[in-house]
Amino acid sequence: MIKVTPANIALLAPSARSSYRAAFLNGQQWLDHYGISANALRTAHFMAQMLHESAGLTIQFENLNYSAQRLPVVWPTRFQPKGPLDPAAYAHNPQKLANTVYARAELGNTAAGDGYKYRGRGLLQLTGKASYQAATAELRKDNPEAPDFVAAPDAVISADWALAIAASEWAAKGCNALADEDSVRKVTRAINGGLIGLAERMEWLKRTKAVWG
Questions:
Q1: CATH fold for domain 6-60+147-211
Q2: Are the beta carbons of 57 and 22 closer than 8 angstroms?
Q3: d(Cα 169, Cα 138) in Å, to the nearest integer?
Q4: Neighbours of 55 (CB within 10 A)
Q5: How do the domains of the chain map onto residue ranges?
Q6: Which of these, 24, 47, 126, 202, has the minimum number of CB atoms within 10 Å of its CB?
Q7: What is d(CA 152, CA 175) in angstroms, rounded to the nearest whole number?
Q8: What InterPro entries does this protein's entry cite (predicted)?
């Protein structure tokens, strides 16, 4: 089994939040349980994706504080000139933005305010009420004491559950097999839904492979 040690975290993410450091200090069980620690490739790909999504283990919540110029770049079909929405009306307003762009049934966000309440959180930026429900169901299979993440969404970023959720989400998306192929593009599509930040993810992978073989 491949181990992720506090020294590894300090090397790769020297500015990591204390809650994330604590999650890894006590989290090897989750890497083992979901097969991530079975080989160096899986560990390297998993860590690279997390380090990207969390900006070096510093981000807990998705940053939705976009400028009017940036919004059409991130959501080109939603905002003018290609989409219907005026970016000026959503700039630097994370709550309004999330409640609009994430008000989608496929995410499980059907009630007013769900978009912001279930915005991206944690090491792999768990997003959408349906994902919070799935995380609750998965972790309660073996851990009945796991929180209801729908009722308590901020538990997703806690030291007790942050790594468990990321590992379970990784496994649910079939990323172990994709990592075994050493395909950063396939892993990124599974995690991101597209290839946003691919260059940065590739750079993180180079760094994690230097640590884990």
A1: Lysozyme (1.10.530)
A2: no
A3: 9
A4: 12
A5: 6-60+147-211, 71-117
A6: 202
A7: 27
A8: Cell_Wall_Dynamics_Protein, Lysozyme-like_dom_sf
Contacts 24+ apart (CB under 8 A), 7-14: 8/211, 8/212, 9/57, 11/211, 12/47, 12/51, 12/56, 12/207, 12/208, 12/211, 13/51, 13/56, 13/57, 13/58
Query: What are 211's two structure tokens?
Result: 């640590």
Q: What span, in angstroms and rounded, lies between the C-alpha atoms of 70 and 29? A: 40
Tell me which amino acid residue 34 is: Y
Which token pair is 58?
Answer: 């510093």
Q: Which amino acid is at 16?
A: A
Distance (Å, rounded) from C-alpha 40 to C-alpha 180?
9
**pTM over the 0.90 mark:** yes
Contact 157, 165 (CB under 8 A): no
Q: How far is residue 213's CA from residue 210's CA, in Å, rounded to a whole number?
A: 6
